[in-house]
């Protein structure tokens, strides 16, 4: 899990692009929900007074059902300073951030999902001729030849 603390990551362009670089470098699988029992390592970046503090933390395990949320510092801890920056032009930056059309997910037409996650699909068919529709044959509905009267 990556945590970015500090207003500088959203305020200045240098820190915003540095945050993007760090996310690309340390990116793992993207998840929608976090289960505390499955969380083991946290990378924490703090921007404060012109410095960036990088800390790697480990979640302590608890033996009971409710997880104890206590982080213990482990591994490398770095104090970084942004000294020299030479950013690309905004046009070049936008061009580099552009996603190719092949990687974009295609929208699936005529497919919908309900609140329970059930997938529904809509199909389109030509209009059916109901006179040619095969139905159940019953003796009472069978057409009889007309009897001739004398």
Automatic annotation (TrEMBL):
It holds the Pfam family Brix. Its main location: nucleus. Residues 134-150 have a biased composition (Basic residues). The keyword Nucleus applies. Residues 1-91 form the Brix domain. It is found in: Nucleus, Nucleolus. The keyword Transmembrane helix does not apply. GO terms for cellular component: nucleolus. Keywords: Nucleus. InterPro entries: Brix, Rpf2. Residues 127-150 are annotated as: Disordered. GO terms for biological process: maturation of LSU-rRNA from tricistronic rRNA transcript (SSU-rRNA, 5.8S rRNA, LSU-rRNA); ribosomal large subunit assembly. Belongs to the RPF2 family. This is Ribosome production factor 2 homolog. It comes from Sciurus vulgaris (Eurasian red squirrel). The lineage of its organism: Eukaryota, Metazoa, Chordata, Craniata, Vertebrata.
